[in-house]
Amino acid sequence: MPLAAGTRLGPYEILAPIGAGGMGHVYKARDTRLDRIVAIKVLPTDKIADPERKQRFRQEAKAASSLNHPNIITIYDIGSENGVDYLAMEFVAGKTLDQLTPRNGMRIGDLLGYSAQVADALAKAHQAGIVHRDLKPSNVMVSNDGLVKVLDFGLAKLAQPATAPDDATKTMAALTGDGAILGTTYYMSPEQAEAKPVDGRSDAFSFGAMLYEMATGQRPFHGESQVAVLSAILREDPKPARDIRPELPAELTRVIARCMRKDPARRFQHMDDLKVALEELKEESDSGALSASSGVALGPAVPSGKKRIWLAAGVMLLAGAAIAGWRMKTAKPTAPEAPLQPIPLTSYRGSESYPSFSPDGSQVAFSWNGEKESSYDIYVKLIGPGAPLRLTSSQEDSDFPKWSPDGRMIAFLRGNSEEKFSIILVPALGGPERKVGAYSSATSGAGIDLPSLCWTPDSKALIISANQSPNQPNSLVLVSLETGETRTLTHPPLQVRGDMRPAVSPDGQSLAFIRTNGTVYSLWMLSLGEGFQPQGDPKQLATGDLRVLSVEWMPDSREVLFSSGQANTGGIYRMAASSDAKPQAVPGVATGTGGLAISLQGHRLAYAVGTQDANIWKVDLDTKSAALDAGLSSTFRDAFPQYSPDGKRITFFSNRGGRSDMWVANVDGSQTARLTSMAGPTTASPRWSPDGQQIVFDSNTGGKYQIYEVSADGGQPRKLSKEAEEFTANWSHDGRWIYFASNRGGDYQVWKMPVQGGDPVQVTRGGGIAPVESPDGKTLYFTKEMGMGGLWKMPVDGGPETQVIPDVHRYDYAVTGKGIYFATEGTRGRSAAIQFLNLATGITTQIVKVDKPLELGLTVSPDGRSLLFSQVDSYGRDLMLVENFH
């Protein structure tokens, strides 16, 4: 009897029947653990005692679950409840091919699109040694958005290998021995009809029979009984498809005929070849080039004597042309490859980040904060259309998923607090989580500075970025999943923030990672020996001035791929994994801090791109109320506002003109004009001269940050610096000096240069960036490590450096005669508040609470009545996919 709605099979609640077949009844059900809809297949009750049928049923689960492909139904679970064996699989809303095929056959474009996907699925199965053996239109589902799913591997059998037939590791017991006929009669191959051993070429015949029906609306073989149908398969050729439907393209009928040849040796030998043929026909069909007269005849005609002579001459001419072309090609450099063509992999509301491919490259795991843009969770998605599967559900953020090389588990990070995190494992198809351990981190915030991890190639250990002891930078640590033991792999010097973003080469012999001091993010390489033991000290790779955001290995273990840029702008580069190599930009892609991934086969690349709308907000310091400054803001990224000395104008940076440049406007937003047109991805940090005539700023136009000066009324910027990385410039109170941060001495310190020219002078000794001189010209303020080290001060003429405020959001602070306005750092890059420190009393008060992440910049009007800051009002990331990457 069919199962009633509400029946429970393990964690699955039956909702409604879907259909029934020879291998079982199928129901729509709900997985109560993950709250997702699934399809449940159960054996018919009258067949439950049949051991062979039961074994075939279990074989379906084993066969299908071993195949990881977007066009093969995904098997979630297999179980037994009260004597009922069931199989839980992906639920697909759609119709089968027999339901979609009209009486006179399908539209050619639909036929080719669907059949190419089926061929791709079978090619994947054959590569794994699995023959379907029961391919037919009712076993192919087409979802409502056009994605094909091949169903019912219940008759699948592991094909016998061509060599080493007694190798136990490459064979498994067949479901049926030779002499048993399995399959659906109308679509059987001749070798199936004779109960002979079969291989992938048998599926090619069944595929041809199915293709014939899709093209004509009729089955290729007929008979009044199964015996008659089997006899037709063995002895008769089907009526040519074009006799039934004359408008069919000749090339398509040739493909169908070749699939259905009696002799397996004369069929397509590999489904990959058949897939390519169908895809080429699909391209011609889409372009309008495919017609009934296109293609070649099914059998080659034998030319007459004269024709043979001309044909031979033609062949010789073609051969000569080919040789000449080869010589020209080898004599001249090849043209540069065309840019890659990225397509959206996800486009959901919110932010999707940190993609990680399954070992076969057919699925991707990623983190997403969901439709409600709340906490981040881990999701898995098949490449192509369809909704993602949610693997986690936690109020704490789950980030940085990494798929294990064996395909079984996904490891990820879960943040417990500002500086602590846990390593969690979850089955790739969902299930109970396993906590590996809790660790500390010397970094916090968001993006690249978050803790990170990677798998070892044997899937037995993880390498994480963690803090091993207080007051130490993050190091890379090997964590054994079998014993829980840890071993430190890198020992970064104290003056850096640490090592992060580890990536082990597929051959297990090298470890790539990023080392940062908070501003510079460089790429390093460590050789590994047996047991992943470090071999010597790590070496820095020559990435120049590129700011490395994430790194992955190419499958050959010889090259690395890394992204470089800023939060939402940047590119992808590749380079050989050696100290003397140079990075080469990958054309046609743009990425940010959301991570990148490459499939183990190297044919697919995924990366995150960001969108951001940051706006300038104005605070009335009398009422302590904040409102969007509509006159200065846009739908782009507007940040780092600065009042002019007379309080009448504002300078800020914005990408509203297509790239990041300096802009000026009146305080009410009128007469907005662009000051610069720099070639670099980032131009920022503007500061007015005391007389309001000049503005200094930094830009990485030349590849590294340098200091520039431009007239407040516009003109050609003048480059002021030329050493190392130099940024966050500001003027002295009297206008005679320009302070700036520079790493020309090895670490970041505050320096100053005479406005009239001369050698720069080092100011700080204990580290510093973002200098601001007090209005009275007596004290110099500065931050450390992008604000993580707090706000400090020292006498302008030199003296002790003392901390003033322990927590500052990056370098967002403004010094007035009465005190210091500053923003504090919160969780995941969100600021807690804008506050004021009264220098006379030492008391700190809150001005406004800011619930959204702050952008760069904070400024107070000369009259002390208003404050401007920038916040990210909307932010998102999507994942992009590049096919055929190489």
Features:
886 residues, mainly beta, six-stranded antiparallel beta sheet, 10 helices, 14% helix
Shape: elongated
Q: What gyration radius follows from the Cα positions, in whole Å?
A: 33 Å
Task: Specify the number of helices.
Answer: 10
Major β-sheet profile: 6 strands, antiparallel
Number of strands: 57
Low-confidence stretches: 156-182, 293-337
Overall structural class, as computed from helix and strand content, comes to: mainly beta
Mean pLDDT across residues: 83
Compute the separation of the termini in Å. Answer: 54 Å
> Can you give the helix content as a percent range?
10-25%
Percent of residues in β-strands: 35-45%
Describe the 3D structure.
It is a single chain. The chain is mostly beta strands and 886 residues long. Helix content is 14%, strand content 36%. It is built from 10 helices and 57 strands. Strands 1-2-3-4-6-5 form a 6-stranded antiparallel β-sheet, covered by helices on one side. Strands 12, 33, 34, 35, 56 and 57 form a 6-stranded antiparallel β-sheet that branches. Strands 13-14-15-16 form a 4-stranded antiparallel β-sheet, with no helix packed on it. The longest helix has 27 residues, at 305-331.
